[in-house]
């Protein structure tokens, strides 16, 4: 049984980890930290976990995290890098759901997250947590920086077109038009997340530049083996969960005869959590709600030179905590789908 610790268990990704791990046959949550809620039973804060999770919150200083096999950081940026070195030295594997170990260049991290990286020596060994791309590296890793929610959808949407240096699309003019539910902003008091502000409304934000942009370009460039440029525009939608990414790619003249539907179907044929829909489909966010599944549809209007890829995921599951559990399974030799074969919720 994998002994699991969770640092920062009161946010949406924290409670989602608790929900998923409560049904995991090979893992047990033995510690959940929160300075503010120390002493409170987890199930008292989250009644949905009554009868499923019996631990209480404890302060990080008083929690023997070094006795865990793995520690998840479901915390704000900057927390994991302050504690990772000590845990790794104790033989504990670390999975960070924030951005501390996503970006390989510490200068880029400082630019986008307005803080200096405190353990740049660990960046070289940190594995990027996108299993469909880095499965083998994750299996051997002791430190993983999980992919962000938007970056997961965009990279999986473009992976079959770029992998192995494929020359199918123009890699310098890619566009990702992405929409997310309000839970993507985290569990905090914020005017923009109020029902009267976010409900019955739709808006773009961070058009000048979003901190996920360098992560997406870093990941796509690594997949392709060369520089990739992408325009990324996020939007806030009046729903709680879900991401819908519409990705536009211009097909190169020499690739116009490619069967892109077959390309996607063949690439993801062995992927448990990626579902390529039949040609002409339009995936909906509600079709993945509460699950670790990504659904993808490939369109080519008028059989022309523009490819449109539609991708949906639950931002809290495949976009965060579910993918983190998927990563834990790989790191500990568990079945990759352990605790994650969840049928989406409908309605």
UniProtKB/TrEMBL annotation:
GO terms for molecular function: N-acetyl-gamma-glutamyl-phosphate reductase activity; NAD binding; NADP+ binding. GO terms for cellular component: cytoplasm. Coiled coil: none annotated. SMART domains: Semialdhyde_dh. The active site is at 149. Residues 3-141 form the Semialdehyde dehydrogenase NAD-binding domain. Keywords: Amino-acid biosynthesis, Arginine biosynthesis, Cytoplasm, NADP, Oxidoreductase. SUPFAM superfamilies: Glyceraldehyde-3-phosphate dehydrogenase-like, C-terminal domain, NAD(P)-binding Rossmann-fold domains. Its main location: cytoplasm. It is found in: Cytoplasm. It catalyses: N-acetyl-L-glutamate 5-semialdehyde + phosphate + NADP(+) = N-acetyl-L-glutamyl 5-phosphate + NADPH + H(+). GO terms for biological process: L-arginine biosynthetic process. CDD domains: AGPR_1_C (cd23934), AGPR_1_N (cd17895). PANTHER family: N-ACETYL-GAMMA-GLUTAMYL-PHOSPHATE REDUCTASE, CHLOROPLASTIC-RELATED, N-ACETYL-GAMMA-GLUTAMYL-PHOSPHATE REDUCTASE, CHLOROPLASTIC-RELATED-RELATED. Catalyzes the NADPH-dependent reduction of N-acetyl-5-glutamyl phosphate to yield N-acetyl-L-glutamate 5-semialdehyde. NCBIfam families: argC. Belongs to the NAGSA dehydrogenase family. Type 1 subfamily. This is N-acetyl-gamma-glutamyl-phosphate reductase. It comes from Aquitalea magnusonii. The gene is argC.
């Amino acid at each position: 049984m994998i002994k699991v610790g969770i640092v920062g268990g009161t946010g949406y990704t924290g409670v989602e980890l608790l929900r998923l791990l409560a049904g995991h046959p090979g893992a047990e949550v033995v510690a959940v930290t929160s300075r503010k809620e120390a002493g409170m039973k987890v199930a008292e804060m989250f009644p949905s976990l009554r009868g499923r999770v019996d631990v209480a919150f404890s302060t990080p200083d008083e929690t023997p995290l070094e006795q865990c096999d793995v520690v998840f950081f479901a915390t704000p940026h900057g927390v994991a890098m302050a504690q990772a070195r000590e845990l790794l030295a104790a033989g504990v594997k670390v999975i960070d759901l924030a951005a501390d170990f996503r970006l390989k260049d510490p200068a880029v991290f400082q630019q986008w997250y307005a803080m200096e990286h405190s353990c740049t020596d660990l960046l070289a060994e940190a594995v990027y947590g996108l299993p469909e791309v880095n499965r083998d590296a994750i299996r051997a890793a002791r430190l993983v920086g999980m992919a962000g929610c938007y970056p997961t959808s965009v990279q999986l949407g473009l992976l079959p077109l770029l992998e192995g240096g494929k020359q199918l699309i123009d890699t310098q003019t890619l566009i990702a038009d992405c929409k997310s539910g309000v839970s993507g902003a985290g569990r905090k008091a914020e005017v923009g997340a109020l029902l009267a502000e976010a409900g019955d409304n739709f808006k773009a934000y961070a058009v000048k530049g979003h901190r996920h942009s360098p992560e997406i370009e870093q990941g796509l460039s690594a997949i392709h083996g060369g520089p990739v440029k992408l325009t990324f525009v996020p939007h806030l939608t009046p729903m709680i969960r879900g991401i819908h990414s519409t990705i536009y790619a211009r097909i190169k003249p020499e690739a116009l005869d490619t069967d892109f539907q077959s390309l996607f179907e063949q690439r993801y044929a062995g992927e448990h959590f990626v579902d390529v829909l039949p040609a002409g489909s339009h995936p909906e966010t509600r079709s993945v709600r509460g699950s670790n599944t990504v659904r993808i549809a490939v369109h080519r209007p008028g059989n022309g030179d523009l490819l449109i890829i539609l991708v949906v995921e639950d931002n809290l599951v495949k976009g965060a905590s579910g993918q983190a559990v998927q990563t834990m399974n790989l790191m500990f030799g568990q079945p990759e789908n352990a605790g994650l074969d969840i049928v989406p919720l409908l309605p």
